[in-house]
Amino acid sequence: LSDRKPQKKQGLIKGDMEKGRGGAWRLLSTQQHPAMTQFFSFSVQPGLRLFLLRPRSGKTHQLRVAMKSQSAPILGDALYGGSPADRGYLHAYGLRFTLDDEAFCFLCPPDQGEHFLSPAVQDCLQREAAQPWALPWPKV
Predict the structure, then answer these.
(1) Half-sphere exposure of residue 70, counting CA atoms within 13 Å on the CB side?
(2) Which of 29, 48, 91, 106 could form a disulfide with 44 if both were Cys (CB 3.0 to 4.6 A apart)?
(3) Domain spanning 10-133, CATH architecture
(4) Could you give the C-alpha distances from 25 to 3, 63, 66, 78, in angstroms and in order?
(5) pTM, to two decimals
(6) What is the 3-state secondary structure (H, E, C) of the chain?
(7) Which residues of the chain have pLDDT under 50?
């Protein structure tokens, strides 16, 4: 979740990352070993957006850096400029993989945090993210 409007509502965030000041990382425009994150955002209510993020690489702080690069830091993420909150609003929501030709799909809706538990966020999750793997994810 973020309480800020992103530069774009969906897309691919791609770029190298380097360590910055104060323990934070930053996104670069170079593409030698890029972090890649696909994303969608949905309006929950005025001043609050739900983001579905799909990391395509596994870099340190990748999702946090991706959100900051879109001018929409994660709610509660002080290191990357997020507004204060009762917790950090980054949650591992879904996982899908195939093993031995069998598909496995898991969803784990958030069960704590005042913003995650709000009826507006719960409705948005049910409406927009019931099957996140079925969304038309941006091309990598």
Answers:
(1) 30
(2) 48
(3) 2-Layer Sandwich (3.30)
(4) 21, 11, 10, 13
(5) 0.94
(6) CECCCCCCCEEEEEECEEECHHHCEEECCCCCCCEEEEEEEEEEECCEEEEEEEECCCCCCHHHHHHHHCCCCCCCCHHHCCCCCCCCCCCCCEEEEEECCEEEEEECCCCCCCCCCCHHHHHHHHHHCCCHHHCCCCCC
(7) none
Residue 138 CA to residue 140 CA, distance in Å, equals 7
- pLDDT recorded at residue 16: 98
Lay out the sheet containing 35-45: strands in order across. Answer: 10-15, 35-45, 48-55
CA distance 65 to 90: 12
Contacts for 86 with CB less than 8 Å, ≥ 6 apart = 76, 113, 114, 115
Q: What's the rounded Cα separation, in Å, for the pair 128 and 79? A: 29
